[in-house]
Amino acid sequence: xxxxxxxxxxxxxxxxxxxxxxxxxxxxxxxxxxxxxxxxxxxxxxxxxxxxxxxxxxxxxxxxxxxxxxxxxxxxxxxxxxxxxxxxxxxxxxxxxxxxxxxxxxxxxxxxxxxxxxxxxxxxxxxxxxxxxxxxxxxxxxxxxxxxxxxxxxxxxxxxxxxxxxxxxxxxxxxxxxxxxxxxxxxxxxxxxxxxxxxxxxxxxxxxxxxxxxxxxxxxxxxxxxxxxxxxxxxxxxxxxxxxxxxxxxxxxxxxxxxxxxxxxxxxxxxxxxxxxxxxxxxxxxxxxxxxxxxxxxxxxxxxxxxxx
Length: 309
Known about the structure:
Layout: H1 2-7, H2 16-22, H3 25-40, H4 48-72, H5 74-77, H6 95-116, H7 119-143, H8 147-151, H9 153-156, H10 158-167, H11 172-195, H12 199-203, H13 208-211, H14 214-234, H15 243-265, H16 268-273, H17 277-305
Helix pairs in contact: 3-4, 3-10, 3-17, 4-6, 4-7, 4-10, 6-7, 7-10, 10-11, 11-14, 11-17, 14-15, 15-17
């Protein structure tokens, strides 16, 4: 009993799961999936082992970005309800450990991808890590309400990297895959910001809801969704698209557009009355949006491989 009482209130030693949490595994899963699709739909086949190493490198690079982001944002993470339980603000991992892990994994992932594939894919991965950790986390996030708009590029690069692993370059197909994620990011995060209430205000992050108000944010969500639709549907008319992807894209984007329109025409009184039901529904669908689109691209690739399309 004496031992237990002496240890009460002391931070426990970091476990393996705490270090995994630093890598943002949920974000990493989307990065890995979109990068894998970019690699598999490319016109140049890749040896399975090389492909595995490439995707592993991209996953490690994504995790490194997450660790660096958590190291830099530890102060605001401790203020926001959504992030207060992350390893650093919760006192489970020291900031220096997160920084060291992020830097070490960054270098390892880039070198591994270079050795396994080509310099262009490795350079693109290095730029992606730099963009997320430095351009977005250290600069844009705390300085402009366009943080999510510009910073969204970091999350949009993975399919381009996957494509570059196979081809050594870029094309209209990889650019459009990038554009789908890039245009999806703002309405996805702004829908979240609408029902997270005061989190960003408390942390001093100039999210659009803070700087321009909720009414303007609703209009921006609709505007970016309108711009997203032709980009997403347009991918159906490239070499990686087809009738399956086109059908899925049309259906998904009509639903997303309707959700954005419903958000736009609501006021705060109506939203508070039903606890932001519409905003939460649109956000939940946005979580599936990219998986649906990139999953359809995989189906198209499988059909072409089987000689069906």
